[in-house]
Amino acid sequence: MIKKIKGLLNPAQKKSIFALVVLSILISGIETVGISAILPFISVASDFSLVTGNKYYNFAYTFFGFSDAQSFVITFGLVLIGFYVSRGFLNLCYMYFIQRYSQGIFLSLGTKLFSNYVHIKYQDMTTRNSSDLSKKLITETNNAALFFYSLLLLISELFVSSFLYTALLVVNWKVTLALTGFLGLMVLLLIKIVSRLIKKEGLKRNQFQEVYYRTISETLSNLKFIKLMAGEKTAINALHKSGKGYVDAMVMNNTYNTVPRLSLESIGFSMLIAALILALQSGQAISSIIPVVSLFGLAMYRMLPSVNRILSSYNNMLYYNKSIDLLYEDFHLETHRLGNDPIKFKDQINIRNMSFGYTEELILKNISLNITKGEKIALIGESGAGKSTLADIIIGMYTSFSGNIDVDETPLTEKNMLSWREKIGYIPQSIYLFDSTVSENVAFGRKFDEQKLKEALNKAELTPFLEQNQGIHTPVGEDGSQLSGGQKQRIGIARAIYGNPDLLVLDEATSALDSQTEQRIMDNIFKVSEGKTLIIIAHRLSTIEQCDKVYRIEDKGIRLIEDKNTLKG
């Protein structure tokens, strides 16, 4: 666990946690002084003769030039009041610092994980569940922040309890050891029983929360199908079941966490009262034991919550322990950092003996293909034959293939992949649009150039629609909800050609459209791709009629269709 904790912290955070520990030691010393100062104040306030009779009080009385005992005691009290106010402010600052630190952990972990996810190999990402990733980014990182907050609180309270315990030993070691024996036994029992139960609830919390997130993600992503199948009740029941399990785990955790406080307070103060009763029965003068009892009472009043917070923090760390495990796994993911070495595409793309498989079983085997600059080619074949996979390899989504891909005799590698992707325009079947304007969806994170943007929109034949609305600032709605299917595809086209790519790839880009809309959009695509290389993946013959060459992917291989007329019928 220590290795994982250190592995999740950056160098600055490791230095900060050390500084916070030092600050907690300082605060613990101040807490001890604050509690210990009560005993001498009560003593001199109840017996003014101690001011001159005690050598320590007398030294302070003489050094500061007091003329009477009453003014000395009043000043002593005022100094204590100032001390306690300052102590409270310092404690407030410390709580702010550890809250700031723990929430900073949340932000840094979330940012690091998100960076890992967006830089992971695309092939690896396709095997992961998006709802699980969202859970880690949102919930588990927050749980990790609570884990580190509990850790810092535990360290702080350990120092406070240790300092106060030492002070009690000095005052009366016999009573202190007696209290220690009883309370120590109780703490061990609580750790043995309650902590185990809390850790168990933490595992339940993680399991039910995973199902909860997955149910939400899958339901909202497939709402149309669920409605069609009248499956609303099934989805709601699934969410309620996992939500109930999560809530039950939280309820039991919070309940178990109150057990230490209630147990320690009941036993601790009962023992203190019992000690006072025994002292009275033994005939001791009440005035002689009140200062000591007062000190122990105040110390217990501060120590019992401190011990309770230690136990609660320890239990919280057990409860959120699974979050640390989950984050540590993805914190050290092998990311896919690509280079931006220059690469030019003037003549051809040459694929030689390329093989690829998601697992050990190959999908494509010994593929060889030449694509000349400016050529329009189509890839056809049965579903699952590998058409989209081949296109994804060409555009650099999958890099774990055998064989060679050369662009103008320059091997396509991870060192020049970013440069290569800048030369590609990609139009998928389902156009991803975020809830913003047309201009922001077309530029999509690239440098904004209004002239280039309007040219791209004009080539995609979106200008008439935009002129009837708010121009390039027309909102598209969530996932393009305010647009028709054809308008969404045209935004996809404008996005693809905005960067003036050398290679355009259409992956079933018009399969969801009606024939007339498809024909208009395909005519448009061939028009805007003049002088550019075009790769089309399609099933309909009408989509590929204007292509120069048609290749069929089958039996893990590829072959050229010599006569496109053979495809008819």
Structural overview:
The chain is α/β, with parallel strands linked by helices. It folds into two domains: 2-331, ABC transporter type 1, transmembrane domain (ABC transporter transmembrane region fold), CATH 1.20.1560; 348-567, P-loop containing nucleotide triphosphate hydrolases (Rossmann fold, 3-Layer(aba) Sandwich). Helices cover 65% and strands 10% of the residues. It has helices at 2-8, 11-36, 38-46, 50-53, 55-63, 69-119, 122-125, 130-171, 173-221, 223-228, 232-281, 286-319, 321-331, 387-394, 417-421, 438-443, 450-459, 463-467, 485-498, 515-528, 541-544; strands at 348-356, 364-372, 376-380, 402-407, 410-411, 424-428, 503-507, 533-537, 549-554, 557-560. The strands form two sheets. The protein has a six-stranded mixed β-sheet, with helices on both faces. Strands 2-1-4-5 form a four-stranded antiparallel β-sheet, covered by helices on one side. Helix 3 (38-46) packs antiparallel against helix 12 (286-319). It is elongated and about 115 Å long.
How do the strands and helices of this protein lay out in sequence?
Blueprint: H1 2-8, H2 11-36, H3 38-46, H4 50-53, H5 55-63, H6 69-119, H7 122-125, H8 130-171, H9 173-221, H10 223-228, H11 232-281, H12 286-319, H13 321-331, E1 348-356, E2 364-372, E3 376-380, H14 387-394, E4 402-407, E5 410-411, H15 417-421, E6 424-428, H16 438-443, H17 450-459, H18 463-467, H19 485-498, E7 503-507, H20 515-528, E8 533-537, H21 541-544, E9 549-554, E10 557-560
Parallel strand pairs: 3-8, 3-9, 6-7, 7-8
Antiparallel strand pairs: 1-2, 1-4, 4-5, 9-10
